[in-house]
């Protein structure tokens, strides 16, 4: 059964964040809040956890396009090819924020991302994922929680999310109601911003 941890953005309890970190280090899956929607996450360096995440999304890991959640832009060079100054300035002016930026991947990406030519980077404007990544010491893999309802694309109620994913994840972080609009996806691989999916963020 998933453990529900009530962690609030204005005062995240350190002991609860540490429990999340321990779970991630042990290969667990978490559901966490962001500045857009609730999402599934795991340790990007744990291949078994990444495979579980892919299974949950009913896809093969090599086909999965899981974005990478960072707490700032300091990890950028770990996963992406060198980017020019204008693109870096553009990223800096939009992050943290409700965007997923597609960039060219380098050869040092974690095992689960090997063979991927591009990678999606997110820096959510939300203290909880930022704190998780900061304390973990590296980014986490992330994918959105889709709703089975034909009208609602994304679930917003953490209690209903916990009910649905009870036996599929290890921790559900309840941070109150989430948003129902996903991030805006922007492709930066050509050197010019190209909106692939319009979401919450406005370019």
From TrEMBL:
Signal sequence annotation: none
Sample GO molecular function, one term: double-stranded RNA binding
PANTHER family hit by this protein: DHBP SYNTHASE RIBB-LIKE ALPHA/BETA DOMAIN-CONTAINING PROTEIN, THREONYLCARBAMOYL-AMP SYNTHASE
Species of provenance: Chryseobacterium polytrichastri
SUPFAM superfamilies assigned to the protein according to its UniProt record, in alphabetical order: YrdC/RibB
Residue intervals of the YrdC-like domain: 14-201
Alphabetized PROSITE patterns for the sequence: YRDC (PS51163)
Name used for this protein in its record: tRNA threonylcarbamoyl adenosine modification protein, Sua5/YciO/YrdC/YwlC family
InterPro entries xrefs: DHBP_synth_RibB-like_a/b_dom (IPR017945), Sua5-like_dom (IPR006070), SUA5_domain (IPR052532)
Superkingdom of the organism of origin: Bacteria
């Amino acid at each position: 059964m998933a453990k529900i941890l009530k962690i609030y953005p204005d005062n995240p309890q350190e002991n609860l964040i540490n429990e999340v970190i321990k779970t991630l280090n042990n290969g667990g899956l978490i559901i966490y809040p962001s500045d857009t929607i609730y999402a599934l996450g795991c340790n990007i360096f744990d291949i078994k956890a990444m495979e579980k995440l892919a299974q949950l999304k009913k896809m093969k890991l090599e086909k999965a396009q899981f974005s990478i959640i960072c707490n700032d832009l300091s990890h950028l060079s770990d996963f992406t090819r060198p980017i020019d100054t204008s693109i870096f300035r553009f990223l800096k002016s939009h992050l943290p924020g409700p965007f997923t930026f597609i960039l060219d991947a380098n050869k040092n990406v974690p095992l689960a991302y090997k063979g991927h030519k591009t990678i999606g980077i997110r820096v959510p404007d939300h203290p909880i994922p930022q704190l998780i990544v900061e304390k973990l010491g590296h980014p986490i893999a992330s994918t959105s929680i889709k709703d089975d309802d034909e009208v609602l694309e994304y679930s917003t109620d953490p209690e209903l999310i916990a009910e649905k994913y009870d036996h599929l994840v290890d921790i559900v972080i309840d941070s109150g109601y989430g948003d129902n609009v996903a991030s805006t996806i922007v492709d930066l691989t050509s050197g010019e911003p190209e909106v692939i999916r319009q979401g919450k963020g406005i370019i």
